[in-house]
Amino acid sequence: MHPVFQAFIDGLAASGDADSLRTVLAEAGAALDLSCFAYLALPSRRGDAPELISTYPVEWTDHYLRQSYKRLDPVVVNALATPEPFEWGQEFPSTRLSKPQCALLDEAAQFGIRCGFTVPVHDPRGSIAAITFAADERREKFRRCVEQNRHVLQLMAMYFHAHARRRVKPNRIIDGVALSPRELECLEWAAQGKSAWEIGRLLNISRRTAAFHLDNAKTKFGVRTICQAVAKLAAAKSTIE
Fold it and tell me: Could you confirm whether domain 172-239 is CATH 1.10.10.10?
């Protein structure tokens, strides 16, 4: 068995949350000279937030989630259309992309995400996810790494998705409302009196992203304040797994 893959499997078995999963995949990627990745699991329910585990710059992932770019992203569009791994970058002819899609790729390039190798995961149970290993430019080292480890990277993506589904549950039902894992996590910290800034520090996300998830929770509950959302959480606490 490939030594990097064996270490990756062992790491997954010991992981219990999104942060530890991020570390395991980051270490495996680094061992293969692939230092930048993003795992995006699309929600099965309309209106739910996608699950993102990533080493991309936080400023970019915050912006990506706020703008709901998953609906526009040509990488995601292609991952939805095919279960086969693919490389992208210059491979996306501009004539096939809309102006907003070209603008999105230009924005991503400002954060050093100009090309990549994406492995779609079409779960038999209906969910779709993708892991992308990205780079700031298509160097020969990156291309060679992808070519030599394509099969291993595909296996890693499938195993990572399977563990993420089990360890990072896509939804939590609170008072009949489905919250994403991040929304519930932020709300639980808010229930302990933490501000959006403090929650961001605790979860290694920005204050704006923490506030974004808290606002989503408020909207789903149909309440105006965080205190009211926390009250909903407290009232249903015994029903949370």
Answer: yes
Neighbours of 104 (CB within 10 A): 19
Q: What is the pLDDT of residues 81-139, one digit of tens each?
A: 999 999 998 656 655 788 999 999 999 999 999 999 999 999 776 678 999 999 988 67
The model carries a pTM of 0.71
Neighbours of 18 (CB within 10 A): 21
122 phi/psi in degrees, rounded to 5 = -100, 95
Structural domain spans, the chain: 3-167, 172-239
Distance CA 68, CA 233 (A): 26
Alpha helices (H) along 1-116: 3-13, 18-31, 58-66, 74-81, 99-109
Per CATH, domain 3-167 is 3.40.1620.10: no
Write down the H helix ranges in the chain: 3-13, 18-31, 58-66, 74-81, 99-109, 140-167, 181-191, 196-203, 207-221, 226-235
| Lookup: tokens for 69 | 């770019």
Coil, strand, or helix at residue 40?
strand
Residue 174, strand partner residues: 177
C-alpha pair distances (Å), 112 with each of 37, 73, 146, 226: 12, 16, 18, 36
